Amino acid sequence: MLPFDDEELKTPVENILEKVRPQLALDGGDVTLIGINKGKVYVRLEGACNGCTSSVTTLKYGIERALKIELHPDIEIVNVPHGMEKQWKNL
User: Fold this and answer.
1) Which of the four pLDDT bands, split at 50, 70 and 90, describes residue 85?
2) I need a labelling partner for 16 at 20 to 30 A (CA). Which of 31, 62, 68, 83 fits?
3) What was the pLDDT predicted at 33?
4) 90: number of Cβ within 10 Å
5) Of 9, 10, 14, 51, which is closest to residue 29 (Cα–Cα)?
6) Taken in order 75, 42, 20, 5, is the CA torsion positive or negative?
7) From CA 90, how far away is CA 8, in angstroms rounded?
């Protein structure tokens, strides 16, 4: 159980995503925050990251790791495929 609610997580999560963006941009990629629900951070990989064979590694060992280290070890990240943005809470 996280000690803060989803709304309190929004700004810190956005700040961490800003920190990882330059690394993604080096390979022609980006990340978009779709939403936060019950401590799960829903993102969509963009550009070259979308569909890349290394995208799972990028999510888990790049973005999620940064969130866990800087915010809380129980935070999870979920990739929202393109076209599924409206159903993100059901993923």
Assistant:
1) confident
2) 83
3) 96
4) 7
5) 51
6) negative
7) 21
Question: Residue 58 is encoded by which pair of tokens?
Answer: 């990028």
Q: Give the CA distances from residue 44 to residues 1, 2, 4, 17, 72, in Å, rounded to whole numbers and listed in that order.
A: 24, 23, 23, 12, 21
Which one-letter amino acid corresponds to residue 82?
H
How remote is the C-alpha of 75 from its chain's centroid?
10
Tokens of 2: 């996280």
pTM listed for this prediction = 0.90
Query: Does the structure show a pLDDT above 80 at 37?
Result: yes
CB 53 within 8 A of CB 42: no
**CA gap 1, 63 in Å, rounded:** 20
Q: Are 84 and 25 in contact (CB under 8 A)?
A: no
